[in-house]
Design a protein that fits this description.
The protein is α+β, with helices and mostly antiparallel strands. The protein folds into two domains: 4-65, no CATH class; 82-279. It has seven helices and 18 strands. The protein has helices spanning 4-11, 14-25, 30-44, 61-65, 112-115, 120-125, 167-170, and strands at residues 82-84, 89-96, 101-105, 108-111, 130-136, 143-145, 150-158, 182-189, 192-199, 206-209, 213-214, 223-226, 233-234, 239-244, 247-253, 258-260, 269-270, 275-279. The strands form four sheets. Strands 2, 5, 7, 8, 9, 12, 13, 15 and 17 form a nine-stranded antiparallel beta sheet that branches. Strands 6-14-10-11 form a four-stranded antiparallel beta sheet. Strand 3 (101-105) and strand 4 form a beta hairpin. The radius of gyration is 18 Å and the shape is globular. The N and C termini lie far apart (50 Å). Residues 4-17 have low confidence and may be disordered.
């Protein structure tokens, strides 16, 4: 706890704050939601030229925050040879999973097993593999998309805290991404088994997925769910979920499946659909 900002996060009742923010953000009272949206756009310099709707067309602040973009705003790289960025944001860290550990910042790490809610069997699949952590700032587009083709195998809701996930907090809170509330989604596909973990943060009022809608959050019970291989099949670039107020996505791939773009480093901006790595086992005929 090296600063008042970090101390305050430890002191605040995370879930009560997020529930309160969620109630306000879900209000459909026209004057209130329009005021919130306009103030937010001004404060964070949100580029509304890319949004498919104008301020008064959104039902609530939450509807604005999870706004869709105009067609063609996020062209997809060639997914037959490339891994796609799952979201707009900035690279927090990117690299290899070594001895089960994922680098966070400034000598801090967490394990794949911790991130996945204690699932040691799933974590072993990723030993020696690749990870990428993408931070979504308040001004970013907040829908999360598939980095590669896959069928949903399982989800694990992991209860936890709701620290901010910005760089300052990442450098000062141990095991941040394995400590916050999160939804770990495991997929299987041509690139083997991979995970897309949606990590909650301070004032995140909820997580939605395209297969189940709003995920029940802010409760103490870990929830695992398995799916039939044909139940939810998604193509690279398809939307898989969204954050109701901001956060982070952590991708995990098995060893020998992905080679990250060597030009990417911590702090670099990325956009959903851009190539962030090369598939080492592209589809036959690609």
């Amino acid at each position: 706890m090296s600063s008042p900002f970090i101390w305050l996060q430890h002191a605040l009742p995370h879930h009560a704050v997020s529930r309160g923010a969620g109630r306000i953000a879900s209000s459909e009272v026209p004057w209130l939601k329009n005021l919130l949206i306009r103030r937010f756009i001004d404060a964070y310099d949100v580029d509304m030229s890319q949004a498919a709707r104008g301020v008064e067309e959104f039902r609530s602040f939450n509807d604005f925050f999870t706004r869709e973009l105009k067609p063609g705003m996020r062209p997809l790289a060639d997914s037959t040879t490339q891994i796609l960025s799952p979201a707009d944001g900035a690279v927090s860290q990117i690299g290899r999973i070594e001895e089960g550990r994922i680098f966070q910042a400034k000598g801090r790490h967490f394990t794949a097993a911790q991130l996945l809610g204690g699932d040691e069997e799933a974590a072993r699949r990723f030993e020696g593999g690749s990870f990428a952590t993408i931070y979504l700032s308040p001004r970013d587009y907040h829908r999360v998309h598939m980095p590669a083709e896959g069928s949903l195998a399982s989800t694990t809701y992991v209860p936890g805290e709701l620290f901010s996930v910005n760089q300052v907090t990442a450098e000062n809170v141990d095991g941040l991404f394995a400590r916050n509330e999160r939804l770990a989604c495991i997929f299987t596909g041509p690139d083997g088994t991979f995970a897309s973990v949606m990590v909650g943060a301070m004032i995140v009022a909820g997580i939605e997925t395209v297969w189940s809608g709003l995920v029940e959050t802010h409760h103490p019970r870990l929830v695992r769910e398995s799916f039939e291989p044909t139940a939810h099949q998604l193509a690279a670039g398809d939307e898989m979920g969204r954050f109701i107020l901001g956060s982070t996505v952590v991708l995990l791939f098995e060893p020998g499946k992905v080679e990250w773009d060597t030009s990417l480093k911590a702090g670099d901006a990325v956009r959903m659909g851009q190539a962030i790595g090369k598939r080492l086992q592209p589809k036959a005929g690609a």
